[in-house]
């Protein structure tokens, strides 16, 4: 059977394939051309630099003695480096506190705005989203001034109750100072994503729920939240990756609070310090890749955990 | 195309290249120079330069109008660390550096060890050697080589609020013990803080260490990168414990300096003293100090001493012009490095406005400079009483290629002291361990 079949297919195929291949190839070429603008930028701006950084991270450069190949020694060093480990531990602790609060705020606001259908709702939506439209650099600088004990509003408010202004740029409160800046900046953005997801829910579901006697609370908890769970998952992953790579806000506030924000405050700041201040691009690259590994592991663990529970939150 | 290196418009890069190639025989080479200043003589070779002195534009114009055979194309690439990051990137990349770069003296060895700077011996150093003190030359030298043309320094003194001192009946303290006693007296009477212990100014604290006779570093590039690190000596511990005591007693501030927060505190009268360098009045006035209600209340006195019978003078800050290895024509670049900010007009403009404290002996020995009644100090002859003696007594410091790391590590330890997490001695021990570890890792032999 097989013997008789094989020749027939082998003769039949080339004819059909040859007729098909030419247009297919043309289609392929067109496809590649469409992808090319992105592909070129992607390869030259992302893949090549990444490859180069990976290559750099395999060498060790000393001020005396020059550069030599050490394979993965830099990575061993990074994971044993207290500066890197403390930085990673900080961003993980920061994520654990920040992300739940941020999500709770953005979800609560999105649910509220979803219920309101007046002009005030549009205005509030814009206002809550506004911080995201302010560049991170300017936002952080602005908060630097707002936190000032000498001329910030905090000082005025505190003096009303006769207390000393809290020093959000001091080492004790810097965690909450940064927490506030990041929440302010990103909660509005997450709110818009959740709001869009809520708007996409079929209103007939609400009608059906109301007919069954569900209250607004029950609709929110039983219908809305489960249905926007994929969006919640998405922003969780965004927030996790963003927070583990924490850099902008502490780096910009650093000139105002050098004592509370040392150069190795977060892993990304430490990589920057190594590369651009200490001229150690090799170790800086190794730290960046090590951070990448930490981010990958954290995101993977998170996705794995949520996948196992089935449809997340339900 | 006629405008040469014009302003910031898009064409100026191309124009600059045109100018440079017109004078291609000399320094400009093919570098597309985008100058902030206007090059006067477009036929002359061009030397590119990064510097951030506030009056740099005038200084460059002075040089360009006085020299026909070479012209400066100047850019402000940021002050201090901002410039160093750019310069470091250019050094690592092997291109993109200017011909002449302004560096603070403590940064010179960091770049010298990377073979980024040109030794100026034989390039005009001998002609100007007599114009500067030995201490000034030591600060810009690494081993036997000279890697910068000194411009300004920062002999230190104690700037204080005369009105506050009068109010609480104290005279400028001569020793650190007296300083603490005065601080305590003022605090008990509900007065302001007696200075500040800033985590972000490790160079300032390092000067205070030197003042107690500490020699934290020993470095000579010739013997294969051997470095001596002595940051846990008794002298260092004594100074750090002293300041740890002042901060824990609440006698001094813990505020980072050169921040809006700090300067608003100075203006608001939070501080009775500011232990700082001769350039401080320029900085303070620029920030609005001494121009409002606090006009005429500032005065200056010599820094308190550990041993008044054996006073030690120290220095904070000060910059030099170095020639980079990327310069096409090092001779011409060295001529610029030694010549710019060395003419009388520029120097006078610099010191009269307290933008710089010049190191040129021409100025330091000039009666007009010595006797100058400084308006910021309400007519006090600050140079004669405080800064010239401090500059003359200054012995120089030893800077090393690991200076940048040392400052980063020191910042952490000062912060730890301010937070009460470490005593001065503990901070000194931790600092020694940290810096020593880095030096070894960087291939130095640590003594």
From TrEMBL, chain A:
The chain crosses the membrane at residues 29-55, 90-113, 125-146, 227-247, 286-305. Keywords: Cell membrane, Membrane, Transmembrane, Transmembrane helix, Transport. CDD domains: TM_PBP2 (cd06261). It is found in: Cell membrane. The keyword Cell membrane applies. Pfam families: BPD_transp_1. It is a multi-pass membrane protein. Residues 92-304 form the ABC transmembrane type-1 domain. PROSITE patterns: ABC_TM1. SUPFAM superfamilies: MetI-like (SSF161098). InterPro entries: MetI-like (IPR000515), MetI-like_sf (IPR035906), UgpAE/MalFG_permease (IPR050809). The keyword Glycoprotein does not apply. Belongs to the binding-protein-dependent transport system permease family. This is Sugar ABC transporter permease. It comes from Motilibacter deserti.
